[in-house]
């Protein structure tokens, strides 16, 4: 089976070009809803396909990465559709901070591992391992917050 990443990255290119066009004023703010529908109709499904095939082939980087990108672009599109043209969303901003933290930590971990693989210098492996432990803690804390948060809100609502 072919690598699903080129498909996912081409979808990423399309979405980021459209949003950049809005941000740079190449498209007028009233085109935001059209951009959002294009992202929902083009980018999200294509990245979901790339995610499914990545996971099916046992490639957690492709599967997880494309899945997170698809979900992030879906959130951007929904926020754009819900808001008035040219407005921003604090909720979307917070979600994107979370996504950036996860991806940045993962990118640092992968970069350090790549340097070790290319140089075979043990110090790089140790740095990669430390970054991996930070990523592990971040992943567990975020997963726990996502699991416990709704339960706590539910309990508070029942009181």
Notable features of this structure?
159 residues, mainly alpha, 2 domains, globular
Could you outline the blueprint of secondary structure elements for this entry?
Blueprint lengths: L4 H19 L8 H25 L3 H23 L7 H30 L2 H37 L1
Q: Structural class of the secondary structure composition? A: mainly alpha
Largest sheet: none
Low-confidence stretches: none
How many structurally independent domains?
A: 2
Distance between the termini: 53 Å
Total number of helices: 5
**Proportion in β-strands:** under 5%
Number of strands: 0
Task: Tell me the series of helices and strands, N- to C-terminal.
Answer: HHHHH
Radius of gyration: 19 Å
Shape: globular
Mean pLDDT: 88
Folded structure, characterized:
It contains five helices and no strands. It is mainly α. It has two domains: 87 residues, no CATH class; 71 residues. The longest helix has 37 residues.
Brief sketch in words of this structure:
By secondary structure, the chain is mostly helical.
């Amino acid at each position: 089976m072919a690598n699903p990443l080129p498909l996912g990255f081409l979808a990423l290119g399309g979405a980021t070009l459209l949003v950049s066009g809005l941000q740079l004023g190449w498209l007028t703010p009233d085109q935001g809803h059209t951009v959002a529908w294009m992202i929902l109709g083009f980018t999200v499904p294509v990245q979901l396909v790339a995610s499914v095939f990545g996971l099916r082939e046992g490639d957690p980087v492709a599967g997880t990465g494309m899945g997170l990108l698809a979900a992030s672009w879906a959130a951007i599109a929904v926020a754009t559709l819900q808001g008035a043209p040219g407005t921003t969303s604090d909720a979307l901003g917070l979600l994107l901070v979370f996504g950036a933290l996860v991806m940045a930590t993962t990118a640092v971990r992968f970069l350090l591992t790549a340097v070790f693989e290319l140089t075979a210098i043990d110090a790089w492996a140790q740095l990669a391992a430390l970054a991996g432990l930070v990523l592990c803690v971040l992943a567990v804390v975020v997963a726990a917050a996502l699991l416990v948060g709704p339960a706590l809100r539910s309990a508070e609502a029942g009181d």
